[in-house]
Amino acid sequence: MKTNFLKLTLLALVVFTxxxxxxxxxxxxxxxxxxxTVKATNISARDGxxxxxxxxxxxxxxxxxDIAFSGTTIIVNGGGKFNPENAEEPERTGQGAISIxxxxxxxxxxxxxxxxxxxxxxxxxxxxxxxxxxxxSYNMNSHLITPIAGKxxxxxxxxxxxxxxxxxxxxxxxxxTPDPLNSEATKYYTFNYAYQANxxxxx
Amino acid sequence: xxxxxxxxxxxxxCSAAFGQMKDSIAVDExxxxxVVTGTRTERVLSSLPLPxxxxxxxxxxxxxxxxxxxxxxEQTGIILIPDESGFEGIQMQGLDAAYTMIMIDxxxxxxxxxxxxxxxxxxxxxxxxxxxxxxxSSALYGSEAMGGVxxxxxxxxxxxxxxxxxxxxxxxxxxxxxxxxxxxKKKKFAANVFVNYNxxxxxxxxxSTWLKNIEKYHNTTIQPKLYYDFSENLKLIVSxxxxxxxxxxxxxxETKQYQGDATEKEWNSQIKLxxxxxxxxxxxxxxxxxxxxNNAFLNDENSVLFEESYYNQWLLRPEVRTTFSINENKxxxxxxxxxxxxxxxxxxxxxxxxxxxxxxxYDYNPTEKLNIxxxxxxxxxxxxxxxxxxxxxxxxxxxxxxxxxxxxGYGYKAPDFRQLYFDFMNPSVGYTVLGYNVAxxxxxxxxxxxxxxxxxxxxxxxxxxxxxxAINFNFGTFYKKNKFxxxxxxxxxxxxxxxxxxxVALKSNGQNVFSYTNISEIFTYGLEYNSTYNFSKDFxxxxxxxxxxxKDKSVVDDFDSYKFVRPPGSGTIxxxxxxxxxxxxxxxxxxxxxxxxxxxxxxxxxxxxVFYRSKYGMFDTNGNQVMDKYDQFxxxxxxxxxxxxxxxxxxxxxxxxxxxxxxxxxxxQINNLAGRQIFARIQYNF
Lengths: 203, 686
Known about the structure:
The complex is a heterodimer of chains A (203) and B (686). Chain A is built from one helix and eleven strands; from the N terminus they run αβββββββββββ. Chain A is an alpha+beta fold and 203 residues long. In chain A, strand 4 and strand 5 (73-76) form a beta hairpin. Chain B has one domain (2-685): TonB-dependent receptor, beta-barrel domain (Maltoporin, Chain A). Chain B is mainly beta and 686 residues long. Classes of the chains: A alpha+beta (203), B mainly beta (686). The interface between A and B is medium-sized, with 36 and 34 residues.
């Protein structure tokens, strides 16, 4: 028993040391695997708030959500409720926040400064609402809601990781020429996102 | 760069070539033309320091056109286009239809839809000439004349006579246009009665849908004018115009069909006394009243009333103008009062505007070669801030046939009734539009009713909505040699406090509440070129061209906010500032060529006009909210209109022709371009 324990301890020590030295040796040229850009399609924002988790890559109903959609409003799992009286609006249980960056999606490779991240609050959402203020513009003549190009949202997730996303369409199946008057096909989000699972400061 | 220069260069080359030839007839006649709109006094066109165009009755008759909208669309620098909401109006110097005042015999028409006046309301059957002044003209005409003035001048019997004409025109789409015009004068009495009937089945690009592009309509215009000369120095004019239109009203709301009528009724009445005190003093006393009414209804499939709307606008305007003349110099002053009311659906109550105004203009000729026009107008208004609109213009004759002219002026357009008092909810989509002055109280009401999810932060209505204002510069030249005539004018307009909609609240149904705000500054600049050359007394060719740049100042100043685009099917890319194309619905190049050929022995006139409009965009298609060169454009296009007129003896004229000869249409992108319309007309003069 004793020798076994000793052997195991030694083995553990060797493995530990090896892994440590391995880390040390490769710290400069180690590459964290490039984040994958994923397209989420037809996320419905038609009924209450639809909660989405970047790490799970799907719509969730738990508290482990990162962002949620309701109509044109997008909320983050951090801060407080905008409208405390709205029972549909989920409580913020995470440490999420959002920073808005103007750039091409692929060009956003480093995390923005911590001071640029905002959480939802009773005074304002982290992503401002209204045409031209946040992620979309609304054409009063065609009634079309169009995502503003170059609006990239860097999200601090509910558990402190980072993701970035850009909205591509507000209409079902993201058609090239949506029909805004077909109410059955509106409020379906298509967006690109990339999730950084590692502890780093870049995508 | 090459593209910009080439068309211009070629035009100048043409002009240089034309300049070599000799003799002239028609050109001189146009030059001596007396106009009134630029100064409110009679002036010879060629010495006027303002950019101005005249359309003569002869040109109107030979074109074979019937409505004011069609005639204006054929002029250089003027284009008849549907706006983003589909209302058709004229764009002049790159400015929207809302900024041009439209007048008949010197008094304005009212009854605009979303700022746009429907110019097909005006028949051209009794027009003596149309005068078009481009550039800010608020110094004489106040609000609405920010971009220019179009004045339709009707025929007036000048000597003892009894004459008239009857005409009937039939065209594609079962379009009918019948005119009767009677001119009579005997000593002190004179009269002019004009009657027009106009109808059409409308047209339809997509026969599979129930709605047409233009529904079936018919309208009638009756325009009696009476003149009585108390003496050579005191003349009375009483003029009336009645217009009545009925058009099929149809709508599809959530796949259900609704049907009804829309009627328009317009009445204009002008009483004017022209009083010549002596050789120095001349006065005009004018009382003008006009009423424009629009009533529409829709019934459902069971003929049960579904929706009704009405619009009832009045304008009452007494004005006195006095001109004091010494030698060639004239001091003109005017004083007047506007009483305007509007009662319509989507207004809480009948709203009233009152304003008093005074204007002064000095038309001064310090030397034989130099003419200076200086003036201002002051408007005191019951609802919005008072406006002072100055103007200064000068014309310098280098020779009798070559002159330079320059003008600078201030123009403004007051917030209209709709921008202040609208209270509208779209039944099919569910959004709400509120006028600025009623927005705060209506938002509170909607909040109490639980209809508001969230008000946009930072928006309040404590400061009054400002008038839109413009500074306008024109610099031009006029040149004539033998058979050749040339007019070139460079223009610049800078418009501040442009009123546009913005989202002021989010409704609980997910839609927006809009109101109006002074949102942006735009500028337009460009060059207008017009030339005419008489190859012989029977063959004239004219060329017209406008180069136009129209941009939003905030986009130019802060392009970084607009530099990312997402072309269809690709990722987001950054574009450069030089890729910014400019405002929606503006073409850089518009041009026309007109051929007028007369075969004397056959008494036949052939009148061929070709028009070009270069590419433009109607809305952003790649996510940066503005038009850039990567957006989808409406392609440039040509239109050709032809008319052939033949005199038979002295009394009859036969005419045939076609508008849009080559049947150009673009149903997906241009909804006001009907296909080829063939017409035939017979006219009897007596």
